[in-house]
Amino acid sequence: MRVTQMMLSQSSLRHINNGYTNLGKIQDQLATGKKITRASQDPVVAMKGMRYRTQVTEIEQFKRNLGEVYNWMEAADAALDQGTQALMRIRELATQAANDSNNKEERANIAKEIKQLREHLESLANTKNGNKYIFNGTDTTNAPIKGSETMDRGLNVLAEMNADQLQAMDVVYDGKMFKHVGINEDGQLIFQAVSQQEPAYGDDDFDERAVQLIIDLEGNEVSFSEPNKSFDPANPASQEVLRKNVRTSDVIVSNKNAVSTNGQNVEVELIKGVSIPVNINPGNVFNNGLFGDIIRLEKALEDGSLSGSDMTGYIDNIFKHIDNFVAERAELGARVNRVEMIETRLMHQEVTANRIMSDNEDADMEKVIIDLMMQENVHRAALGAGARIIQPSLMDFLR
Predict the structure, then answer these.
(1) Are residues 188 and 263 in the same domain?
(2) Contacts of 83 (CB under 8 A, 6+ apart)
(3) pLDDT of amino acid 383
(4) Is residue 36 within 8 Å of 25, Cβ to Cβ?
(5) How high is the pLDDT of residue 235?
(6) Closest of 124, 175, 146 to residue 259, by C-alpha
(7) How far apart are CA 224 and CA 211, in angstroms?
(8) Segment 213-246, tens digit of pLDDT
(9) Domain contains 46
């Protein structure tokens, strides 16, 4: 086969052009630090890179979620801590007031401080994290407590209500919440303890087993009855059912929605497939029972006829609410510990994901520099060889 000058020139130019292409590819790697700049250069690397980048992006989002969770839990823990301190102060004041050396005016002054502490607890129940209320379940845009006026409606308001409206009311007495279950044959309102699931109103043994309040609005009287836990059938003198009359001012009537009852969890995904509830159930701490017992204590202190021994029951009720706060804070602390372990796991996953992504798409800079120097030498050699292969023509002499 005859090799012409034109064939030599075209071959030389083609090789020089390929050298430029290789040189450009290496320079792209050097400038970007990546093995490829277009998916067409290596579809396998591009496909794996998309998957690895998705994983890294997910981890980054989970880390942002962690920040939100910590903010929420820290706000809840701080509110519970302040609430516990407020209740301990109320207990301290109640214990101080139980001393019969205090006169009526001194107890009234103690009641004023307790009222301020109750209002402080109301503000704690309305704590916000950013623009979200943290003690209102999933309804984070509305305050759990809209006003204290619905926490003490008074007994007389019950006389104006029908059966459906009575169902929307809570009655608080002696650390217990009661719900309306019916009206007896004497026209008295029957309220049963919310915590008691049975017996139901109308059962044959309801009067013997039910923890109930009987409210006679016409006579403005309230009585309380419950089974006697220490009843001895062998002792006829012992009573099977304990009944007593209750001061009307010692019974607090409030709207069920005076304090939020939304106990739905607000969950945040912290790792793929694992969601953690960041809020606490407000019904376990901030509820009508808590505020009702504090209002009962205020009214008891304003009543000059009570003795120091009569205050014991109020102090015990405050102790129960303190225990509820402590228990809820302990449960929150356990969740914080789990979140910290998840954070450690995410940090390890982030390092691994970034390393895998780097191995897949990052260029080996030392190798790229060596390849660039070699390609430059090859390119210079190609230019030199081309200059020798392409022979001078008549046109070169006519210039």
Answers:
(1) no
(2) 121, 124, 285, 286, 325
(3) 73
(4) no
(5) 64
(6) 146
(7) 8
(8) 999 988 789 999 888 776 556 665 556 778 889 8
(9) no
Asked, for residue 29, whether it belongs to a domain, the answer is no
pLDDT band at 17 (very low <50, low <70, confident <90, very high): confident
Residues 74 and 146 occupy one common structural domain: yes
Domain tally, the chain? 2
Q: What is the Cα–Cα distance from 52 to 60, expressed in whole angstroms?
A: 13
Domain span at residue 87?
Answer: 57-151+259-350
- Tell me the backbone φ, ψ of residue 56, rounded to 5 degrees: -65, -40
d(CA 22, CA 14): 12
**Which is nearest to 276 in space by CA: 118, 76, 94, 131?**
76
Based on its alpha-carbon atoms, the radius of gyration of the chain, rounded to whole angstroms, reads: 40
User: Is 302 in contact with 111 (CB distance < 8 Å)?
Assistant: yes
At residue 322, what is the residue type? I
**Boundary-marking domain end, from 218, 233, 252:** 252
- Look at residue 37 and give its three-state secondary structure: coil
pLDDT digits (tens, 9 = 90+) for 278-310: 888 888 899 999 999 999 999 988 887 777 778
Q: Are residues 161 and 146 in the same domain?
A: no
31-69 per-position pLDDT tens digit: 777 777 777 777 777 787 788 888 888 888 888 999 889
Are 167 and 303 in a shared domain? no
Question: Do 332 and 188 lie in a common domain?
Answer: no
* HSE toward the beta carbon, residue 5, CA cutoff 13 A: 6
Residue 398: the pLDDT is 61
